[in-house]
Design brief:
Blueprint lengths: L13 E5 L5 E6 L3 E6 L4 E7 L26 E2 L24 E8 L6 E9 L12 E9 L3 E9 L5 E3 L1 E3 L2 E3 L6 E4 L5 E4 L5 E4 L5 E2 L4 E6 L5 E5 L4 E8 L3 E6 L1 H7 L11 E8 L5 E3 L4 E12 L3
Antiparallel strand pairs: 1-2, 2-3, 3-4, 5-11, 6-7, 7-8, 8-9, 9-23, 10-22, 11-21, 12-21, 13-16, 13-18, 14-15, 14-17, 17-20, 18-19, 19-23, 20-21
Bound molecules: 6-O-phosphono-beta-D-tagatofuranose.
């Protein structure tokens, strides 16, 4: 069911219609970029600045069904990250990405990005979620599609008890070949290495490179990161505020093959660099408390 509080008509360059799998999707097509966001999970599933190759990666095998996560794009992980801490029956990465969000506002945004389209959606966690979570939060997600992609996830505790939450904008980025990619900006940060039993290490000064499955949660990492893509000759910069965790992931060969919604041959074309607050950086929201997580993604061509 399409839930919107929208005034009519939508601004020029914006259409709302069934997307893949018949799921309602807002499509943006302006001079600055093309983009798309599904109401299922408030899930950004595309962004391509004019003149650039697509920046947001999508699996060709993704499901587009209620109750199933979309593979690729920008999943919103909330209120836990990874497996549920105590109940294996709960969905990994929480229920926000499986929920039907309400489309609240769509407008042309003549802010710092110039010609952009701002889309705002919301989700109340006590609105009959099938997932047992004893807290009442209001989530608001704003995606601004322009020459840059600006994302903001605001979480308000509208209940009467404190709540501990983990959150991530689990962004999948398109790259030319992961074997030629470097990720800069995390030197000196401590990370949990899921490929080494969850042990903790300190990132050395060298950029992160990929030669196998890589699954790292950088903690206390509040700064910007850059994906240096030699194959596509571009740099993707991810600036952020309100985030102290950065997650870096590529499934590589075996894990890609093990995921039914991930093509066996897709792993070289993507990398996740996620803007998050997870593990030690989880948030504690008092009743009435609010937190804002922001990411700003921009692309620069590098000289040949
Ligand atoms: O963010 C990295 C990660 O936690 C990996 O461990 C892997 O599980 C990935 O998320 C994808 O999770 P998903 O539940 O979307 O398959």
């Amino acid at each position: 069911m399409l839930t919107t509080n929208l005034p009519n008509p939508l601004p020029p360059g914006v259409t709302l219609r069934p997307g893949r799998g018949g799921l309602d999707c807002l499509f943006v097509d302006t001079e600055a970029c093309t983009g798309e966001i599904h109401l299922h999970g408030a899930h950004v599933t595309g962004w391509q600045p004019r003149g650039s190759a697509p920046v947001v990666w999508m699996s060709g095998r993704s499901a587009f069904e209620p109750g199933k996560p979309i593979r690729g794009g920008i999943p919103i992980c909330f209120p836990w990250f990874g497996p549920h801490p105590s109940d294996p029956a709960q969905p990994p990465h929480g229920f926000a990405r499986l929920s039907a969000w309400t489309l609240d506002r769509v407008g042309r945004d003549d802010g710092p990005q110039g010609d952009a389209v701002a889309v705002t959606l919301s989700l109340r966690t006590d609105a009959g979620q099938p997932h047992a979570w004893p807290h009442r939060c209001l989530l608001t997600f704003k995606a601004t599609f322009g020459r840059e992609l600006a994302l903001e996830l605001a979480v308000s505790n509208v209940g009467d008890t404190p709540c501990i939450v983990q959150e991530a904008l689990h962004t999948y980025f398109s790259v030319g070949d992961i074997r030629q990619v470097a990720v800069e900006g995390l030197a000196g940060a401590t990370f949990v290495d899921k490929m080494r039993g969850g042990e903790r290490f300190v990132q050395d000064a060298a950029p992160i490179r990929f030669a196998g499955e890589t699954d790292r949660v950088y903690l206390g990492a509040a700064g910007a990161t850059t994906i240096v893509d030699a194959a596509l000759r571009r740099r993707i910069e991810i600036a952020k505020t309100g985030s102290r965790s950065t997650v870096v992931w590529n499934p590589w060969i075996a894990k890609a093959r093990a995921m039914p919604d991930f093509g066996d041959d897709e792993w070289p074309s993507m990398v996740c660099v996620e803007t998050a607050n997870v593990l030690d950086d989880a948030l504690t929201l008092p009743p009435g408390g609010e937190h804002r997580l922001q990411a700003l993604i921009r692309v620069d061509a590098t000289p040949a």
